[in-house]
Write the structure tokens for this entry.
Amino acid sequence: CPPPALLPIPAAPVLFSRSLVPVQTRFSYSGEFGSAAGTSFSYSGDHFWGPITAFRVWEHPSTYIKFQFAGTWSKTYGYEEGKHHEVTLFHGEEITQISGKHSTYIYQLIFFTNYGRTFFFGQPAGESFNAVPLEQGNVLAFISGHHNGAGITGIGMHWDQSTLPALKSYAQIPEMGNSSG
């Protein structure tokens, strides 16, 4: 006796509700600012160690950058010469915007944090740039760009969702049942 024929089962209708669709993390990129001449560099991968907890900037005719990700100093790109500045971020503090000036090199960098602190480095020479994430609540994850023997020739900022609950909430849908006011 042959097996009974299988009848196709009708597919259940798929319903979508905007309130049920989870918010997806949006990564964004700002840049590259500068001439972008020389050898490329990227701190991609270093950001997996954790959030940026400190950074160093050397002031010379151009800027050199070094970051500390969750307690580990990364490689320096550019030439470590001249006066350097070291900034240690407070617990929970993250970089939310970077502005500056560029031409052949990056001549000035201005870092803004979620704690309202601003750090100025370098000289205001060249064309202005301003880098911010596309999504509110995203913060600086890492930097990439170009350098040569004399300094940083190009810089781009990569933004990611904050690891802090207070900043994450900007990019999330409020939970049902929570009301404010």
In short: Residues 62 and 106 are 6 Å apart (CA to CA). Helices lie at 165-168.
